[in-house]
Write a structure and sequence with these properties.
This protein is of the alpha/beta class.
Amino acid sequence: MRITAVKTLVTCPGRNYVLVKIETDDGVYGWGDATLNGRELAVAALLEQHLAPLLIGRDPDRIEDTFQYLSRGSYWRGGPIQMTAIAGIDLALWDIKGKRANLPVYSLLGGRCRDGALAYTHASGRDASAVEERVREAMERGFKVVRAQVGVQGTGLRGTYGVPEGKPTEAPLPREETWEPSVYRRAVPRLLEHLRTRLPEELELIHDIHERLTPIEAAGLAREVEPYHLFFLEDPLRPEHQESFRLIRQHTTTPLAMGELYFNKWEALPVITEELIDYIRCDLGHTGGITEGRKIAAIAEPYSVRTAWHGPGDIGPIVHAANVHLDLAVPNFGVQEMVFFSDQVREVIPGGPTYRDGYLTVTDAPGLGTDVNEAAAAKYPYRRAYLPVTRRLDSSMHDW
């Protein structure tokens, strides 16, 4: 069997997705997701102009060799654009492998270690009472773990990470938020105090710093929130500050999670092998797919680091399905971030994980258990959009 065609499809059923279809000469095809929020067309161009021609005539069964061929063969290795493009190809190849074997991908990875993957959702609001209301709604849906984010109120401040300000719209420039770390550091302990005194103690809480603090600021906040027993504190530092996790570890026992801005196993290696984090949060859609993700999980296992793969709405149901296939198969799974997709997205990309009473699972359908409705995708053309950027009150760019 040989690869005969590689197609890239860019669609926007509410937000942009870059989808990759690999076709073979015996009629079996696979779909992958190569979405990089805010830089979608850069990935699409790399796929169409540079990577697709390399795949024609190759054996789709040789997934590891294809990963090495694409990641090493360029000489200019790594980075989010290249690793996202490779991830889309990788997921499509795993989808094909499962369909050829008539098995779900998790079975090819060694089979189930668990019946379902513990999931968490997001609860955000302008103040602590609004966050509490969102958390209670999540609990009613069965969630046992919830990420809580609160608006940071203050003179001149505008926008807060994790607190929605309406749906993303096409715009010539990114939305700019105004943010100050001192105000934020005062708000988070107050939020957690509010939630812990009003909600059941067995509810697990997560908070995401989103790399917006310096090492000493992050260490201070992690120590301040110890009494609230977080499941983990997410992304406390920029990915460049790996050595600074030592400073945080010296000052707190709050569990730490990191990794959504790492793009390969080497970037994740120091924080794992020095046991500076407790959960590794790489994005399978940005680190080369299942092939690299399972290696990261294997590296993490002997260091008692658990997986918590990135699972936001700006990666589609195909990556979410890959997350859960790997969640079910690895022994050191921790928790899985998830979102509920809109009817528009599900029209374009049917299938994916199913949620029930706090857990995610996938069907036993061959491959990843997802597909793409190309006719539906054509109804939703690409719309340029950007992630927001953050400035300080003095108008300088925030150094996160």
